[in-house]
Amino acid sequence: MIDISRRQAIAALTASGAAALMRTASAERQEVHAGNAAALSPAERHGFVEALLDYFGEKAPELLRPADGILKHPSVAPALPGKTYSTNLWDWDTLWTSQGLFRLAALRRDEALKEKLCTHVEGSLLNFLEHASADGQIPIMMTATDADPFRMLATSATSRNQAKPVLGQIGLLAADQRGETSWLGPHFDTLRRFYDAWMRHNASPTGLLVWGDDVAIGNDNDPTTFGRPFFSSANLLLNCLFHEDLRASAELARRLGRTQDQERLQAQAETLALNIQKYCWDGRDSYYYTVDVQCVDRRAELIPTVPRGMGMSWKCLPMRIQVFTGFLPLWCGIATKEQAREMVRVNYQADDRLNARWGVRSLSARESMYSLAFSSNPSNWLGPVWTIVNYFAWRGLRKYGFEREAAELADKTIALLGMDLKKNGSLHEYYHPDTGEALSHAGFMDWNLLALEMV
After folding, report:
1. What's the pLDDT score for residue 153?
2. What is the reported pTM?
3. Which of 36, 55, 260, 413 has its CA 20 to 30 A from that of 442?
């Protein structure tokens, strides 16, 4: 099997028969794509899984931090001690690291680890909730000495960004593992105010939420948000996370006997799902897009003496840039079966623009912004493969019945991390989608642990 990279293909085009080579390269990409170049034999898969289990099992205790400074409760770190991010308590990183660690405990039948995790995951959530502002906002990231390093909650802040809406999901995860929810009861009103603050400061006329700016939004340099005007981007990551968090907190409210809160949160989740459907699905491209909500009719201001004609009938415009976030409505079950079928057929099965040799590209290779360069601030989401991206797509594919595609993506992810561990002795933050080369931050754990859900 010939593996022709984009750079090799361009060089060969210059050297010889361009048209013939283009046909050959296209055929080879399709063949590799269809056959899953990273397919594993049962023995290979078993070997990689065992190596990952041993590595995670050895390193897991190092992610469980004691209470320290203003972080009065034990917490969960996203990276190994001494590595980038290891001293920070991040919002969504806490969710994915915790979820992966609980999976590790289940696979290893380690009840002691599970018990410790319950204490540290609950503690992480309480550290966030206990540093909520009077307005209900909660910081994106904290350290032992600083409750709001990004100064998001300062009275002078303009963006009004705050923690990503994952706190209800962290709470439900811990409650499920602990087998009871009463520990969260005294803090539930803080969680409810957190959602109210989001709606008060970041809701748009579409009913979708917008980021105030691009600082610490998770997928840092997503072109639909990075460098865009304030309060313009109704990012799919933000809105799908918010949908899932409302649903999680509705379930927590039910368990706590808070019927009115349960009904309110569930209704908000259903309304948000309808708005994502209405404004973010693009029938032309069979893809879900982030939308720009800064559509304002300014005729009264700019030409007040001219009679108005046709009204402005749209509240937003799709930003037709194929970011991995298009898979998120499948991850959270918002997409219809027909939408999921068309999206996967047209944008995933057809070619390698998103479906790469080692996983799902964070940005389509057909976009002009596509880049695999190293970057740490912002982290690079312009094409590299991230385990969290593979995870979102994998969950979505499974949810809608694409079992073969989901199994192939699971094999790619397990092989990618297993080969990194074998070659480098640790895992990394993101990877080259065509070669599997590690591109960033040795010692990164975080959502790499989610690969354990794919075994």
Report:
1. 85
2. 0.91
3. 36
222: closest CA among 338, 8, 384?
384
**Residue 1 domain-assigned (yes or no):** no
Question: Can you give the CATH number for the domain in which 240 is found?
Answer: 1.50.10.10
The dihedral formed by the CA atoms of 91, 97, 103 and 106, expressed in degrees to the nearest 10: -100
- Give the pLDDT mean for 295-304: 92
Pairing of strands 359-360, 317-318: unpaired
pLDDT, position 38: 59
Say how far apart CA 339 and CA 139 lie, in whole Å. Answer: 35
Tokens of residue 132, six digits? 């909520």
> Cα separation of 368 and 5, whole Å?
17
What domain range includes position 278? Answer: 36-301+312-454
Share of the chain above pLDDT 70, in %: 91
Give the whole-angstrom CA distance, residue 319 versus residue 179.
Answer: 43
Confidence of residue 28 (pLDDT cuts 50, 70, 90): very low
Q: What is the C-alpha to C-alpha distance for residues 416 and 427, in angstroms, rounded to an integer? A: 10
- Which tens digit of pLDDT belongs to each residue from 393-430? 999 999 999 999 999 999 999 999 999 999 999 999 99
What amino acid occupies position 28? E
**Eight-state DSSP code of residue 454:** G
Our count of domains for the chain comes to 1
Give the separation between CA 414 and CA 403, rounded to whole angstroms. 16
Contacts of 239 (CB under 8 A, 6+ apart): 208, 209, 272, 275, 276, 280
Q: What angle (nearest 5°) sits at the alpha carbon of residue 100, between those of residues 56 and 394?
A: 115
Q: Give the burial class of 89: count Cβ atoms within 10 A of its Cβ; 0-12 exposed, 13-18 middle, 19 or more buried.
A: buried
Q: Please report whether residue 3 resides in a domain.
A: no
